[in-house]
Amino acid sequence: MSIRKGDNASLVTPEGLEALLRQVRHPLRLDDILRMAALPRRSKGAVLDALESLEAEGRIFRLRGGKWTDAGQVKTITGVLSVQRSGSGFLTMQAGNESTRDVFIPAALMGDALHGDTAEAILLPGRSAPAHGLAAEARIVRVVRRGAKMLAARVIGPKAYLAAPSDASMHRQRSAARPLPPAEGLYAAPADPHFPILLDVDCSALPHAPKKGTLLLAELLGRRPDGVWNAAASSLLENEHSAEVQERLTRLNHMIPFDFPPDVAAEAAGLEEALSEACPEKPSGSTGQRIDLRDLPFVTIDGPDARDFDDAICVEGNTLWVASADVSLYVRPRSALDREALARGNSCYFPCSVTPMLPEKLCNDLCSLRANRSRPVLAARLTCNEKGLADSADFFPAVILPRANLTYEGVQAMLDGNDEAPSPECPLPDAALAPMLRQAAGLAARMIENRARRGALDLDLTEAGFLFDENGHVCGITRRARLFAHRLIEAFMLAANEAAAAFLTQKKEPFPLRAHPAPDRERLESL
């Protein structure tokens, strides 16, 4: 059906306007719509209301220049928004989009999307953004998933916003710089410059009213029509220069998730049975498909502040055993745990805490090779010659019973013949483990010598250690010595990795390789 002038009774309704835009098949201004439908000028307000209701439902879109078009006639894209200090941003494309190039989002076209949000946008026809290279422009029409739900914000007081219009972090709010309605709470600005917004914070849950300049943690509640965001303060971030508070800020600013979703936590809580089945109490030579190695004196060797124990070693003459916690027993493909681990990518280690990739039940218990606890592992057995080269290697699932969780410093003191522990945190190994550790030291020395003959680069670099006072402030920097015990573990892990790569290559199995880019000339000259 064609649209005829005067055939206008139904066109003032949302359904009629949607049908008109779908039939015309090109964007129309409001005046064009009135003219095509022969609607009087007094209908302009009603037509605009109907158009805006359609836009709110995502059935039509408003383009640059005030033009309206049917949703089926525009190209939509989905990506993660990255906001710049200026207030504008870029949408990084996700899988499923035709193009992988970032798309420029002007500050005025972001709607209520924030940094880190997954958002849906429509590509704007016409010119690209010359000030931003050749990036196409888009307008965000819908937030698919919020990236940040909590923000660290600094109290600026109810009048500070109007008194400081030059603040670059308020760029996106200047257009709304008019007297704001009185607020029950306080105004605050996010500490992260990627969030150039103003917060009206309800502080009723705090123990006392925060002063100007105080840092607090606030939950985002929603954006008001005037552009200000309502938020609720949950806690004060006092002593903000302490390591603990700085760690919290880092997690917030980089959107590092801390708590696990309920389905992930529930899945982790029900894994004890899998451990019991893989590690029956009585050693039997083999437990199903696992070889029982609980009679071997495996140990872990880590720093004194280690929070989880991933790998254990044992040496018998020229035979090296390396055992890694078998995470695959618990984390099944496409399970809730697997999806969450993929989303996190890695654990994040801070001076005073760890944000784990897997729930604590796994990383600090079931998948941690703790002393005197039977644990399922993937084991590598390397049979080495007198020169320390691996003549053969095999790999298999196994069960081990680590005898101790040792420290580099404690092992080094034992190897050096010291009778006293270097510190309470680094005790000497039990005397029963000394023969095995001395055999390990001899094998590692031969491996290190072989690597040197092959021309391997051995960078004996100093590592800095930070000291904190009782308030969590850095009070000193120490030098962490690189001990032979460190090199022992490095040599064993390198040998196991090389053997695994050779094994998989021989089997013609695909496997990932970690490649380091070649250093540039400037860094080589500096070295």
Give an account of the 3D structure.
- This protein is 25% helix and 25% strand.
- It is α+β, with helices and mostly antiparallel strands.
- It folds into four domains: 57 residues, Arc Repressor Mutant, subunit A (Orthogonal Bundle), CATH 1.10.10; 71 residues, OB fold (Dihydrolipoamide Acetyltransferase, E2P) (Beta Barrel); 89 residues, Beta Barrel (OB fold (Dihydrolipoamide Acetyltransferase, E2P)), CATH 2.40.50.140; 201 residues, no CATH class.
- It has a six-stranded mixed β-sheet. It has a five-stranded antiparallel β-sheet with strand order 5-4-3-6-7, with no helix packed on it.
- It is elongated.
Strands, helices and their partners?
Layout: H1 14-24, H2 30-36, H3 44-56, E1 60-62, E2 68-70, E3 76-83, E4 89-93, E5 103-105, E6 118-123, E7 138-145, E8 150-155, H4 160-163, E9 186-190, E10 199-202, E11 215-223, E12 229-236, H5 243-253, H6 262-269, H7 272-278, E13 286-287, E14 290-292, E15 299-302, E16 311-316, E17 319-325, H8 336-344, E18 348-349, E19 354-355, H9 360-366, E20 375-384, E21 390-400, E22 404-407, H10 408-415, H11 434-453, E23 463-468, E24 474-480, H12 484-506, H13 521-526
Parallel strand pairs: 10-12, 14-21, 15-22
Antiparallel strand pairs: 1-2, 3-4, 3-6, 4-5, 6-7, 8-9, 8-11, 9-10, 11-12, 13-14, 16-17, 17-20, 18-19, 20-21, 23-24
Helix pairs in contact: 11-12
